């Protein structure tokens, strides 16, 4: 299992919504603390076999690598965060437009399996927001062209409330993460998004390779992101 997981070289995380599913499974297996000669429980084996048998489908998945529209007049960065009880993640899309059209492209993604020490879902959502803010900071620094607007999205109203609260009014775990997010987000706008429009929701659940083929929400982001903002 480890060998095949390691063979999935994906530095930008474009296949992250698939790979995280295996990471979740591996953590479940690790918790069992099996010795090297103990058989894997049949339920875990069947899940792994179902995933492994579909790995070749990854060859049928393509991602557009032209980041920006030709002769763009506007350039925006949009990020999305989400969490479940087993994993959380963040993905970034570049939205570019000219006088005729607008396009959006998945740039990168990062995920984490939930820590072994159980956290509440709101705290995991906050961890996802922190991961998104840090990923956004990295991309903004690496990109040679300044963005006209940077917007980060979360479907957690609790997380958005925390981000807009002074850290000293929050408990330590939340306060420490909010302080970092606020420091990074000085010129960044945070907004709420419905869960069904949130591409990071795919990450928190994990997908099989066959689920990712032609999945436009993951590959291109929400459909409305290409529309004019006043719409």
TrEMBL record:
Q: Which GO terms describe its biological process?
A: DNA biosynthetic process
May I ask which residue range the UniProt record assigns to the signal sequence? none
Q: Sorted alphabetically, which InterPro entries does this protein's record hold?
A: DNA/RNA_pol_sf, Retrotrans_Pao
Indicate what this protein is called per its UniProt record.
RNase H type-1 domain-containing protein
């Amino acid at each position: 299992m480890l060998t095949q997981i390691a063979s999935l070289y994906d530095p930008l995380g474009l296949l992250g919504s698939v790979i995280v599913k295996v990471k979740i499974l591996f953590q479940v297996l690790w918790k069992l603390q099996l010795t090297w000669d103990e058989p894997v429980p049949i339920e875990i084996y069947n899940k792994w076999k179902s995933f492994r048998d579909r790995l070749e489908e990854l060859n049928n998945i393509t991602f557009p690598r032209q980041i920006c529209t030709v002769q763009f007049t506007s350039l925006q960065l949009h990020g999305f965060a989400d969490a479940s009880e087993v994993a959380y993640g963040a993905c970034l899309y570049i939205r570019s437009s000219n006088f005729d059209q607008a396009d959006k492209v998945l740039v990168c993604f990062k995920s984490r399996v939930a820590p072994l020490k159980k956290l509440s879902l709101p705290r995991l959502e906050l961890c996802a927001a922190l991961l998104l803010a840090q990923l956004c900071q990295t991309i903004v620094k690496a990109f040679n062209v300044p963005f006209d607007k940077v917007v980060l999205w979360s479907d957690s109203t609790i997380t958005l409330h925390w981000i807009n609260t002074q850290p000293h009014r929050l408990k330590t775990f939340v306060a420490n993460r909010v302080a970092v997010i606020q420091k990074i987000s000085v010129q960044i706008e945070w907004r709420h998004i419905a869960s069904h429009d949130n591409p990071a929701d795919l990450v928190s659940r994990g997908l099989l390779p066959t689920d990712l083929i032609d999945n436009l929400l993951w590959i291109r982001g929400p459909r409305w992101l290409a529309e004019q903002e006043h719409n």
